[in-house]
């Protein structure tokens, strides 16, 4: 039984392009905000007014621990197709997420993000009778380690909108076997892992918040808790 080649390579190229564009957008907006604070972009010949400036508050860097759960598990898109077999219902768990981030300014943090999830599916014989005949079964288990960049946008005191850009590596465990228990090679899986998202943190107290996020990569919807250490 052979694995059917799909358009996953083309989808991966589009995803890498999307991640690159978000990184560029985040860098440009950060530079623009920094430049405006420094007074860049003032028309030539225009002098600063001699008005007194209010003393600026110095931001104190923080370390934040976040735990969450994403849905659905987008690794299901990487389950291979086989000739003369069709997929049954996919079961999934996760991804469970965790990140440790250093927020060094009001508008930016950098850290490490990890995700873990599992997807499983049975395959049935295309040429079987009305009652489905098992042909194969397969499981993909994934742990991803990613560099996590979060760009915070202006918000209220209670809500902090943000853009997440995370890139890293996939660590796969795959197990595919036919109805007789023989191992089947499903093909190579991508090493490149990524997650992009748009979300918001809602402060519950001085040191804790909940976050809600929509994105693409390992999950589409994501929510959880963040704590300042």
Can you give keywords for this protein?
mainly beta, 1 helix, elongated, 229 residues, two-stranded antiparallel sheet
Concise structural overview:
The protein has 229 residues and is mainly beta. The protein has one helix at 8-38, and strands at residues 3-4, 62-71, 81-82, 85-87, 91-105, 108-125, 134-152, 159-178, 192-203, 208-216, 221-228. It starts with a strand and ends with a strand.
Structural topology:
Blueprint: E1 3-4, H1 8-38, E2 62-71, E3 81-82, E4 85-87, E5 91-105, E6 108-125, E7 134-152, E8 159-178, E9 192-203, E10 208-216, E11 221-228
Task: Give an overview in words.
The protein is mainly beta and 229 residues long. The chain is built from one helix and eleven strands, in the order E-H-E-E-E-E-E-E-E-E-E-E. The strands form two sheets. Strands 2-5-6-7-8-9-10-11 form an eight-stranded antiparallel β-barrel. It has a two-stranded antiparallel ribbon with strand order 1-3. The longest helix has 31 residues, at 8-38. Mean pLDDT is 83; it is low at 5-10 and 30-43.
